[in-house]
Structure formats: C-alpha cells, structure tokens
C-alpha cells in the first residue's frame, strides 16, 4: 500500500475505543459523551475524504456512510466489549457506503489514515465499493443491492452461537433477494441482526412517493421478523434497541429513521445526499466544524484529467446514456398522445437520471413509471406490457445488473415480448465504483436459441450513432438491448475529418461499418473502444502498418459481407471493454472459422479486477491504444 505524504488533516487519534456490554441497555454519561464525540469525529472525517472524490472528479458517496455512523460506533463497541458473541464484521448491503469500511480500517490501524485522501483514485486500492483482498482491513465484497443479506445468512449458519450484523437500507430492502433472505432467516432461526437506515431516500427520489404502499417495517414483520423501529439520531434509544436485538435470539430488524445527511446544511433530507457531497457544501460544513486543515486540503486539490489526444475522433463529447433519452423523446414526439399511452410504457429502477430516462419522464410523464430498486420485476413488467403486437415496453438500468435479469429475459423471449432496453454504464470506462459495477457480461442477454424470438444487441459508438440507432430500432419487434457507457465519448470522424455518422447517416441493424480500410488486417471494435481503436489505427498507419477498422455496432449478428472482407486478410483483432471470457471476442473467432477463414486472431477485453479511477481502467486492462497497437504489431510480424 502506497502512503501519501500528506498528513490526514483531522486527528483520528482523538477516537476513543469504547467497550460496551449489550446486556446493559443504559449508557452512562461518560459512555454517551464518548459515543457522541466518536460519531462527530467520524462524520467529519467521512465528509472530508469523500469530498476529495468530488474535488478530483472521481465521485463517491457521502450520505450512506455518514448516516450510519451512530450504529457503526455502537457495533464497534460491542465487538470490543463482548468479542465472543459476534462475527466482528460490518457486513453492508450498500456498497456505496464503503467509506465506513475504509474509515474503520484506518481506526483499527489496518489502513494508514493518509491513504483515505486517495479515496477512489486509480491504483489507490480504495474503489467505490468494498473488495475483499484488495484493501487492507476490508473484510468482504459488496455493492449490488440485495446480495449481502442472503450471504450473511450463510455466515450465520457457519458461526452458530454468534450474532451476525448486516447493515441494510430502505433501498436494498426493495430487492427481491432480501425477501428470500428474510424467509430463510426466520425458517432456520438464524441469529442475524439487520440494522436498516430508513431515510426515505434513494438515487432518483423518495420511496414513500414512488412506492407509496411499501413499508420496510411492515414488510419485515410480514416475513416474521421482530422489528425495533426508532430515531437513528437518538443515541440512547438506538443503543437500547441494539442491545435488545443482540440479547434476543433469532432474526431481528433494527430500523433507524433519520433524514439523509442529518446536520449537513443543503443536503439534509435531499436525494443529492446519496452521492458525494459537493465541494462547496463540504467546505461549508467543515468550516462550521472548525476543521480548518481539512478545508485547506480540499481547496488545494487539483482535478486530474487525461491529456492524451486521440486521433480520428473530434472534440464534441456526448453522453450516450443521456442521448438515448433525448432520442427517445424525439421518437415519442412523432406519436400522438393517444398512441403513446396505448403503445408505450417506460419503467425506471431508481436510475432515471443515470440512464437517460429522466428525459422521457420530464417530456411524457403519462407513459413513465417511476419504480423501485427491483430490476427483475421491472424488466418483466416492461415485457408484459410489450407482449401484445405493436406495444413496446421500455426498460433501463446499469449494465452490471443485466446479469440479474437473465431468467426474466428468457421468459420475455418465450412470450414473444417487445422490449427496448437501455443498459448504461457498459464496459469499464469511468468506473471508480470498480469491479462489481463493471458492465462486462452484456452478451449474456443473447441467450436464446437460433429459432427463438429475435434478440438484438447494439452498442453505438458516439452520440450521432446513438440517435440513429434508437430511431432505427424503436419500432422493431423482439428484444432490443442498447448499451452506452458512463463516460462521454467523442464524435467519430471519417478519413476527411467529417462526422462518420453525420446528418445523412442511417443506422442499419446487423450491418457492420468500415471506419477505415486496411490491407494488412483489421481491428473489430464497438462502443467506447471504437475511438481508442481508431486512434491505434491512425498511429499504426503512420508507422507503415496498413490496418483497417470495423465498427460492429450490432454485436450478435454476423454481417457476411464484412466477415468475408476481413477474413481474407492476414489478421483480425477484436478490441472491446466486455469480459474477455464472455464478450464479442469469445464468439468472433468461431464465426471466422465456421466460414473457412483463418487469419491470425486475437481478442482484447477486460480480464482483471479494476484499478479504480476513471479513464485509467482502460490501460489497466491493456485495451487502450498502446495495448491495441502492441497486439496488432505482434500479429503483423
């Protein structure tokens, strides 16, 4: 672990390790004051080091770890006071609360406090979700909501006689996995204690508004759990309820009501508190707390940026994840209001701002369903709406969560449904959240049989092609998956410096496109890997290697004409950000051989766990222009 030379500007040595006996539910005055001081110290520290992520542009999350400090401080005291009674791990369903894990590792002396100032930076080993084996002091991996409570059930089975804690949230409780976990915990009388931060805030809104019938407490009571509900900011009541939960056998939920980011002016109760605190609000908060050194450190941060100049693409950057929504609004605008209501239903999974669906929500709220964090059910609802000929269900979420919907995709196909899906955050670019949020197994969506209901996978290369793609495939029957990245992508240029996908361009599903001709061999790419591959092609040509470039925007259909063109050359390299084991490259070589083509073949893709940061993920995987050029040179010998 590399240690930054900068001293952590808040004195974590002021933390006073406390031992508490859960058999005594009443705090002494000294214990209470120590807890309050520890809570305030840790909250200040969380604001500081998460705000460094905002200042550096790598993002992060402040609200979740900040909110849950009181219960974490009490659990830490339990672990110290009665170590034989607990599995001493702060298992957490919400990976974005990773700040808790990093801070506790620092307080235990397992992570240098100064390292916290590198939060979410590339190669800092402090990614946006906890990863076991990567960061000293981190004891589990987490990040996809609804996955940790079922796992904790197994931990409890492996540790009879000990209580196991799982930090939950009203958001994670919306996932169907947690309902299954609750039933098993009750049936097997597992000693699992759910500590749930119920702040009525998720990314896109307030559960009380978009799921008005949903109650965390009533839901868990319906599964058979004892529920202890109260004010999470009332230290004495919180402590009493946690003591009761620990001293009562079986599965129990301690539900803590509080506003998001209590005490942070400008964020308290706001959905914006879910993400990283803004620099301005962090400075204001830290100044009010008298943390002058912390304020100066944040002010001194300079945001890093990628200085590399890519050849073959322009300087117009487009966020395709938002362009999808803009293109959809254009398509829907050509329909009458009656036709829209009758033929289109758009359903969100609490990510409308990240997937472009907010554009649709704002323009045509009458066809928009703001829903909860329940990807499987929402996808199936879209598929059910699109079961009838001429109707379209529209669904969107992050590409990482496509893996959660495979069975529902199969059932939609078997029911001949029409679903237009947008899976954003595909690949690895700009993924400071890191490995658990990589969208690299997207080809799993193409899991039907040859004679099954049509499934098409599309990954447009820039904003112009995204618009053209949405317009071309919107009305098509079957399942259509359109992918986009978290990062912005530049406009792709032709050999004359004009937009390749300009105003006269028409997207043709299933048709590959020649971006650059070549006589020595070809690179096949798509999405955000295309402009990087184009840069490699331009530089290779300058070095005398006449390699060409193919844009395969339709990922799962063989273009026979293009296959014949490239199959007769000396080599073919597939360059992508998808999983090397499951991506386009894992199929493309077989497609060549099946047609009798035998060029030298290689495929580059994501093959290792992430390094954090933003654009740094590409060179880390060897799929940046340098990596692509090296592979071409190897085959061109």
Automatic annotation (TrEMBL):
Q: What is this protein called?
A: Transketolase
Family note: Belongs to the transketolase family.
Which GO CC annotations does the UniProt entry carry? cytoplasm
Q: Which Gene3D superfamilies match?
A: 3.40.50.920, 3.40.50.970
Record-annotated Transketolase-like pyrimidine-binding domain positions: 318-491
Pfam families documented for this protein: Transket_pyr (PF02779), Transketolase_C (PF02780), Transketolase_N (PF00456)
Q: Which cofactor does it need?
A: thiamine diphosphate; Mg(2+); Mn(2+)
């Amino acid at each position: 672990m590399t240690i930054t030379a900068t001293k952590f500007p808040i004195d974590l040595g002021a933390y006073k390790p406390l031992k508490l006996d859960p058999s005594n539910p009443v705090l002494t005055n000294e214990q209470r004051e120590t807890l309050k001081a520890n809570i305030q110290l840790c909250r200040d520290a969380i604001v500081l080091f998460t705000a460094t992520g905002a200042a550096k542009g790598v993002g992060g999350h402040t609200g979740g770890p900040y909110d849950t400090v009181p219960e974490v401080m009490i659990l830490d005291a339990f672990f110290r006071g009665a170590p034989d009674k607990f599995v001493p791990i702060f298992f957490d369903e919400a990976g974005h609360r990773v700040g808790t894990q990093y801070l506790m590792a620092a307080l235990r002396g397992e992570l240098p406090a100064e390292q916290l100032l590198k939060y979410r930076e590339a190669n800092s080993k402090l990614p946006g979700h906890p990863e076991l084996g990567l960061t000293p002091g981190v004891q589990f991996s987490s990040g996809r909501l609804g996955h940790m409570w079922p796992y904790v059930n197994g931990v409890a089975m492996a540790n009879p006689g000990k209580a196991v804690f799982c930090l939950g949230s009203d958001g994670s409780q919306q996932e169907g996995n947690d309902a299954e976990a609750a039933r098993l915990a009750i049936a097997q009388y597992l000693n699992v204690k759910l500590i749930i931060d119920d702040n009525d805030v998720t990314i896109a809104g307030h559960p009380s508004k978009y799921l008005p019938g949903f109650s965390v407490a009533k839901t868990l009571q319906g599964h058979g759990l004892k529920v202890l509900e109260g004010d999470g900011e009332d230290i004495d009541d919180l402590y009493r309820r946690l003591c009761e939960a620990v001293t009562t056998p079986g599965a129990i939920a301690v539900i803590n009501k509080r506003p998001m980011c209590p005490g942070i002016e400008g964020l308290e109760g706001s959905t914006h508190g879910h993400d990283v605190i803004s620099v301005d609000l962090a400075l204001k908060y830290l100044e009010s707390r008298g943390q002058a050194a912390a304020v100066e450190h944040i002010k001194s941060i300079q945001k890093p940026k990628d200085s590399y100049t890519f050849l073959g693409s322009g300087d117009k950057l487009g966020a395709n994840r938002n362009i999808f929504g803009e293109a959809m609004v254009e398509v829907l605008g050509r329909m009458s209001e009656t036709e829209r209501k009758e033929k289109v239903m758009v359903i969100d999974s609490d990510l409308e701002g990240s997937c472009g669906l907010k554009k649709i929500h704002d323009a045509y709220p009458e066809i928009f369903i703001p829903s909860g964090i329940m990807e499987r059910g929402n996808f199936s609802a879209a598929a059910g709406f699109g079961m009838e000929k001429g109707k379209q269900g529209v669904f969107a979420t992050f590409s990482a969560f496509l893996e959660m919907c495979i069975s529902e995709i199969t059932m939609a196909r078997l029911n001949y449904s029409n679903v237009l899906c947008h899976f954003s955050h595909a690949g690895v670019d700009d993924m400071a959240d890191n490995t658990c949020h990589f969208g690299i197994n997207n080809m799993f969506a193409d899991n039907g049989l040859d004679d099954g209901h049509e499934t098409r996978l599309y990954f447009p290369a820039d904003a112009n092609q995204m618009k053209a793609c949405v317009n071309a495939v919107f009305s098509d029957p079957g399942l259509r998956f359109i992918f986009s990245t978290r990062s912005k992508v530049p406009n792709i240029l032709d050999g004359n410096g004009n937009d390749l996908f300009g105003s006269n361009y028409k997207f043709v599903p299933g048709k590959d496109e020649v971006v650059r001709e070549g006589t020595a061999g070809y690179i096949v790419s798509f999405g955000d890997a295309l402009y990087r591959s184009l840069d490699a092609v331009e530089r290779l040509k300058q070095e005398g290697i006449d390699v060409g470039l193919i844009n395969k925007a339709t990922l799962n259909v063989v273009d026979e004409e293009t296959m014949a063109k490239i199959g007769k050359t000396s080599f073919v390299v597939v360059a992508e950000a998808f999983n090397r084991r499951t991506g386009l490259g894992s199929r493309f070589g077989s497609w060549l051989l099946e047609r009798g083509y035998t060029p030298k073949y290689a495929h580059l893709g994501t093959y290792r766990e992430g390094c954090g940061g933003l654009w740094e993920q590409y060179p880390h995987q060897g799929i940046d222009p340098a990596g692509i050029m090296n592979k071409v040179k190897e085959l061109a010998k």
